[in-house]
TrEMBL record:
Gene3D superfamilies: Designed four-helix bundle protein, LysM domain. This is LysM peptidoglycan-binding domain-containing protein. The keyword Coiled coil applies. Pfam families: LysM (PF01476). It comes from the Bacteria.
């Protein structure tokens, strides 16, 4: 379209110049050269417009594909909600597994505890009863003895020449197996 306008202008100028006789031919030649330059420039501009149209189309297609790569806020919220649901169900599953393992361990510990209590009860049944009454028929004279590591009432009686029952009665030991290191005992008739 631009080319036609230029051609019409040139034709109009050529007709006006044709009426002038002298320099008209030179000016007409110059005008023709200008029209040729303008035509060439218009051709270049048309090529540039075509190139820009191709680039524009390419950008539009890239934009359309890029829009597919973006998510909306609601899509993002839905995805987050899905992840949260998955985590909750995973947590519930892990919690159930942990509770099951804890339950199994507690059952094992309960069995072990019951076995230990049964063993203690059997040991207590074979143990001599705790003495709660004490006789006064032991020698009132004797020595003091400080319990050493590894001592028992029987070993002290053997060392000192006293009787176990006299040591138990004189010191009112309700459980002869429970004497403490550093404890001072009266040994009736001891040497």
């Amino acid at each position: 379209m631009l080319r036609r306008i230029v051609i019409l202008m040139v034709c109009g100028l050529a007709a006006a110049l044709a009426a002038r006789p002298a320099n008209a031919q030179i000016e007409l030649a110059n005008l023709r050269e200008d029209v040729r330059g303008l035509s060439q420039r218009v051709g270049e501009l048309q090529l540039r417009v075509e190139q820009l149209e191709r680039e524009n189309a390419d950008l539009r297609s890239r934009s359309a594909s890029a829009e597919k790569g973006f998510v909306t806020l609601s899509q993002l919220n839905d995805a987050i909600a899905d992840v949260n649901r998955t985590l909750r169900s995973g947590d519930a599953s892990v919690k159930a597994d942990v509770l099951q393992q804890v339950g199994t361990q507690m059952e094992k510990l309960a069995k072990q505890t019951n076995a230990a209590l049964d063993s203690l009860a059997k040991g207590m049944a074979t143990r001599p009863p705790v003495q709660t009454t004490f006789a006064n028929d032991y020698a009132k004279e004797g020595i003091s003895y400080t319990v050493q590591k590894g001592d028992t009432v029987a070993s002290i009686a053997k060392k000192t020449g006293a009787r176990v029952s006299d040591i138990v009665n004189a010191n009112k030991l309700s459980d002869a197996s429970r004497i403490d290191v550093g404890q001072t005992l009266f040994i009736p008739g001891g040497k």
